[in-house]
Amino acid sequence: MKIALAQLNYHIGNFESNTKKIIAAIGDAKLKGADLVVFAELAVCGYPPRDFLEFTEFVELCDHSIEEIAAACTDIACIIGAPTKNPRIEGKDLFNSAYFIEGGKITQVVNKALLPTYDVFDEYRYFEPSVSFSCIEFQGRKIALTICEDLWNINDNPLYISAPMDELVKESPDFMINIAASPFSYNHDDNRYKILSDNCKKYQLPLLYVNQVGSQTEIIFDGGSLVFNAQGEMLDQLNYFEEDLRVYEFDGTAITGLEKKEHNPLPDIEQIHQALILGIRDYFHKSGFSKAVLGLSGGIDSALVCALAAEALGPQNVMAVLMPSKYSTGHSVQDALDLVQNLGCKHEIIAIKDAADAFESMLAPVFEGLPFNVAEENIQARCRAVIVMAFSNKFGYILLNTSNKSECAVGYGTLYGDMAGAIGVLGDVYKTQVYQLANFINREREIIPQNSIVKPPSAELRPDQKDSDSLPEYDVLDKLLFQYIELKKSSRDIIAQGFDEQLVRKVIAMVNKAEFKRYQTPPILRVSPKAFGMGRRMPIVGKYLS
Amino acid sequence: MKIALAQLNYHIGNFESNTKKIIAAIGDAKLKGADLVVFAELAVCGYPPRDFLEFTEFVELCDHSIEEIAAACTDIACIIGAPTKNPRIEGKDLFNSAYFIEGGKITQVVNKALLPTYDVFDEYRYFEPSVSFSCIEFQGRKIALTICEDLWNINDNPLYISAPMDELVKESPDFMINIAASPFSYNHDDNRYKILSDNCKKYQLPLLYVNQVGSQTEIIFDGGSLVFNAQGEMLDQLNYFEEDLRVYEFDGTAITGLEKKEHNPLPDIEQIHQALILGIRDYFHKSGFSKAVLGLSGGIDSALVCALAAEALGPQNVMAVLMPSKYSTGHSVQDALDLVQNLGCKHEIIAIKDAADAFESMLAPVFEGLPFNVAEENIQARCRAVIVMAFSNKFGYILLNTSNKSECAVGYGTLYGDMAGAIGVLGDVYKTQVYQLANFINREREIIPQNSIVKPPSAELRPDQKDSDSLPEYDVLDKLLFQYIELKKSSRDIIAQGFDEQLVRKVIAMVNKAEFKRYQTPPILRVSPKAFGMGRRMPIVGKYLS
Fold it and tell me: Which residues does the record give as ATP binding sites (chains A, B) (predicted)?
């Protein structure tokens, strides 16, 4: 039996494009002699469809796509993910399902039992968990077909009280197929590998695993679909961060013709680099835009975003706007110009002085006698947002946000100023990782000016300002933030690790007080296990460690 | 047996304040001779605590509060909601629980079975559903104690496959108690009344129902706790939108000394009026702020917000900033001044011309030869945001957002301009309801100038602009939006109701295309069954009816 794994890049709700792509892959799999082609979880509508699922019409469009896809399944069988209606009146109205299609017809439907409802996942919001289980019979073989999370309940602290494979294994299946929508984070690849391998070992069955690839606003799917033998050894892995389709031979007992391979994922920073480029590219392509604008300060964050955007969209599609203020140092403009030169992207220089002066004059009667403070600092940052948004409105450029995760965490940024943008490129990348990414981009030649990398970080909103005036050094700050944000450690536990007590309390309070700002920031490309945005839902008017 | 219902206003994560308030109510209930005092769902930490629940320390602080509360329960028993740890390794780590405390000690814990995970609710994100049920025994009586949603599974399309009362009734309880955190929407009161009354009729038991009161960022709890007899007739209702504590006598069979009362809720607009005032007040008080700023245009939306803020915070705490542009009509400033005069709040007039001109000059080389368009319109709206945010940064005023639901829906607003603010007061109020609220506020005397109410709506961002240039009339638009947003009807169904087909497609596409703007808007006070924000989760890069 020949089985094709089709790892595709879907677009949420774009039924025409998804269906066309799926049908093309069915044709490709047939050409390659496959008896069965396997697509990912919720492939017909893209993942996550969110509240689109609450529209009856949306689910009908899924049904319609499945009919078209089934019609294309002549001389080949197909497994594909889609929502289906729950026929029972009790419970949620939908299941998260996998169709089995054979001879042009739907012959069986498997429903997901374990519904991830944590971090960025909201599946129990829409779906009823399945409580009945049976294998798929195909060409005299039994397939234990599960959907993503269904295989994830085998760790030390299981989230669910049961595991679907414990039921399916009673029917003595020949192998496992799992269809998934498993988002990228820099440490997820290792977890996924281990969980899937552990399933093979536990049930002593080979496994074919199909993930999606591509970015959906903030959630990035990295592909990397996997094939394991019954000993939990990896036999093959599909490409990362791009579409792929490969065919495997199953001889009734094992997947044949493949040797055991080592699992050697790229270093974290290289994974993040690829993820961010895919994230930017898909945000633009799936939104129907091609051109980006950003404010280029001469600092490291905007330099990095500019370099990533140039790689994702082509330098000719990136407009860098240099907006020096009276507090900008001379070398900032030069550093920015050097970068633009290195990348070959477009630029404009627009000093903000006239607008900032106008605001200060207009406000002078009201602010009379009061000292310069954050109000005047923020006026400058907001003048810049007015300018780059004017570029956006006039030319159809999409504004890239350049705030990094360390800043987002402690609220070091100006709402409606440098926190503006359509998509946050670095909002899940700590400042220390920003440096690593910049150095990675410069691995062969200096693209990001060395001066942008080595100079002390500064918002340049008042004379001689440095980030370190109001924040601890980033190597300390980022470690502390990681303990609180990613690991959800208590202040007590963090202090016990040797961090200064006063600093811990101050930083955690800053994080919690900045919640109102983060609520209004753009969606952030998620590359870590705990990104700001949909995956971290905090009360705004809440009084906890603040 | 005397039972006190304590309907209190909690603050999420403010353990000190919540515990103090709860212990004071225990004292009050004792003074009134109660044997048992009943508090709401998750009372110790406030509802919804969201991802605070993922911090072990947060749950420990809940435990600590419960210990303090238990110590105060001498000569009185108490029922109170709190998260508790799930002792079983399988499943989620927490339960959403009700403690029964007697003689200063926790004697029983009841766990919630039905976990709302829809709209603004995310309970399955945190909690394991209970699967075991038993009544509380107290003074020789059996209490069927449930938590909020546990009583809600008796409608025609039940969301869950079981109902806890079907189990509890097997133990022949004497009456029901339900502790809740049931948020306000203008139609929710009727639903709640019917569901609770139906439970009484179905199980032939009296019911004491305790809700919370108070606002938590966007979610407003209206109180209105209820007492029913076994025939499902209402015997009493606690106050709406304020704290209340009342004591009832249960004689072993029935709640005595009370006649059947009619359920006569206030008209929708009056409910919304009270909800918005509570929403504004609690946002400020719970955040530790007292003063508001807003841009006052002379139009109806900002006039209404100004009036609501003056009522919620006191006119002396409201700063209205009039920011005319060259396109503002003369009467706009006069209408705004009349309002300020009527309310007695503070004001400043700052024309935006100088800043807007500065931006246009700065951008002239780049925009040369291109026609005036939305870029220049938005510069004006963003100049206003820079000014009001400067007030906020300089004086500690909190910016109120004045966008209405109709505008938010179709994206008729400027991101980082008039869409800025800390809290959206009218973001869940359609334009047609804005007029109704204005007329309600003017019911006794003209507070909002009649001219602001009767003139055609306009953003005044270009000469002679009217909303009706780019939008249908609001009475048509709002009805169409209601079908799509609140009722989730398909375009086909909406067209079948007689709406113009082209208009329906255009408006729905506008709604879906504006998702990226709504993602960055402030939290919106929720007064309808489907508000923008946490309760409506749409993909941004999604292609569905757009």
Answer: 295-302, 402
Determine, for residues A216 and B415 on separate chains, whether the beta-carbon distance falls below 8 Å. no
Report how far residue A80's alpha carbon sits from residue A42's, in angstroms, rounded to the nearest whole number. Answer: 7
Provide the residue type at A44 as one letter: V
Element (H, E) at A476: helix A474-485
Residue A101 forms part of a structural domain: yes
Number of compact structural domains in chain B: 2
Q: Find the domain containing B171 and state its range.
A: 2-258
Length of chain B: 546
Let me know if B112 is a catalytic residue: yes
In whole angstroms, what is the distance from residue A439 CA to residue A508 CA?
29
Distance between B59 CA and the closest CA of chain A, angstroms: 11
The residue length of chain A stands at 546
Q: Which residue has the tokens 């966008």?
A: B403
Neighbours of B314 (CB within 10 A): 15
Domain boundary among A413, A442, A467: A467
Interface-testing mutation among A348, A386, A492, with chain B (most B C-beta atoms within 10 A): A386
Helices then strands, each counted (H, E), chain A: 17, 20
What is the rounded distance in angstroms from the CA atom of residue B177 to the CA atom of residue B43?
15
Q: Which of B355, B389, B522 sits opposite A362 (nearest CB)?
A: B355
Phi, psi (5° rounding) for residue B79? Answer: -115, 125
Minimal Cα–Cα distance from B361 to chain A, Å? 9
* pLDDT score at B326: 87
The residue with tokens 């638009």 is: B477
In a domain, B354, yes or no: yes
Residues B150 and B287 occupy one common structural domain: no
Nearest to B216 among A92, A161, A541 (CB): A541
- The domain spanning residue B210 has which CATH number? 3.60.110.10
Query: Which pLDDT tens digit goes with each residue over A200-219?
Result: 999 999 999 999 999 999 99
**Rounded distance between C-alpha atoms, residue A136 and residue B85, angstroms:** 39
> Is the same domain home to B312 and B195?
no
Strands A136-138 and A141-147: antiparallel
| Residue A495 near chain B (CB below 8 Å) | no
Site from A323, A540, A546 to mutate, B interface, most B CB atoms within 10 angstroms: A540
Answer yes or no: do B329 and B433 share one domain: yes
Q: Which of residues 517-536 of A touch B (CB under 8 A)?
A: 519-523, 534, 536
Taking the Cβ of residue A424 and every Cβ of chain B, the question of whether any pair is shorter than 8 Å is answered with: no
CA B60 vs CA A93, B45, B54, B167: distances in Å = 37, 11, 11, 31
Q: Inform me whether the C-beta atom of residue A84 falls under 8 Å from chain B C-beta atoms.
A: no
Sign (positive or negative) of CA dihedral A232, A235, A241, A243? negative
A11 touches chain B (CB under 8 A): yes
Strand partners, A321: A295, A348
DSSP code, position B522: P
The reported pLDDT for the residue numbered A542 is 85
CB contact under 8 A, A58 and B161: no
pLDDT for residue B546 is more than 80: no
Flag whether B182 is marked binding.
yes
Residue A363 included in any domain: yes
Cα gap A461→A530, rounded to integer Å: 30
Q: What is the pLDDT of residues B430-451, one digit of tens each?
A: 999 999 999 999 999 999 999 9
Please give, rounded to a whole number of angstroms, the shortest distance from the CA of B348 to a CA of chain A: 8
A476 falls within a domain: no
Residues that constitute the known binding site of A for L-glutamine: 118, 182
B457: Cβ contacts below 8 Å, ≥ 6 apart:
B299, B300, B431, B466, B467, B468, B474
pLDDT tens sequence across B259-288: 999 999 999 999 999 999 999 999 999 999
Q: Are residues B78 and B150 in the same domain?
A: yes
With 0-12 / 13-18 / 19 or more C-beta atoms within 10 angstroms meaning exposed / middle / buried, residue B502 is exposed
Residues of A marked as catalytic? 41, 112, 148
Whether residue B275 contacts residue B246, with contact meaning beta carbons closer than 8 Å, is answered with no
